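pls read this stuff:
=====
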Amino acid sequence: MSSNALSYLRQSKMPHIWCPGCGNGIVMNAIIRAIDSLGLDPRQTVIVSGIGCSSRAPGYMNFDTLHTAHGRALTFATGVKMANPALNVIVISGDGDGAAIGGNHLIHACRRNIDITLVLVNNNIYGMTSGQYSPLTPTGALATTAVYGNIDRPFDLVKLASGAGATYVARSTVYHVPQLKTYIQNAIKHHGFSVVEAVSTCPTYFGRKNKRGDAANMMVWMKDNTAVYKKGVEEYDKSLVIGEFVNIEAPEYTDSYAALTERVGGS
């Protein structure tokens, strides 16, 4: 990490609490590099998270940050954005925090198309609370609460966000770091609700329980099982598809609210 990127970190908070091989640091690095590439003013940038391993990232980032209640990051972020629409608001969440207890907030943030960027770190498991299965845990995978294998079907987060109305949706992995940084950068630039799914490694719980090996082996699995999205293609020979899936324009919520208040106030 360059010295310029290091300026975005609260180095006094180091060392971090993440396990060796965890992908959260890679995702945080990609977010910082995206912010740096865009030249965003740190004083005009707010990082919000809920509860979970990935949600500890804002504590290490040298911005105005909020570490909020479990599943409620998007509600706090919505309040911040509505109070000051000029701010750059970025939410870091996990698959349990963002798609389980926070799932209803997720779909309504998508529906409203409020100008917030959500980076949802998907390590297929609840990491901080000892490895329970999440809504993104693959069917058949083992977890603390699925000792004989998970029988639930997982959400496809890309389809969920797209169907709910998000106007920018992308997916990458902690192996495909340049693409991940680019998608986060594009998401921040996009004027509307943006979702970037960052598929990550959890060697401590998901990898160990499912005999995926160490973090390096999990990275190799990502490389070998990933296909790049092509518009119009429905079937892929790989289990993980990455790319930019949605990038459209639609009325943004704070803009619509400002127009409404102006119209009502002038009537």
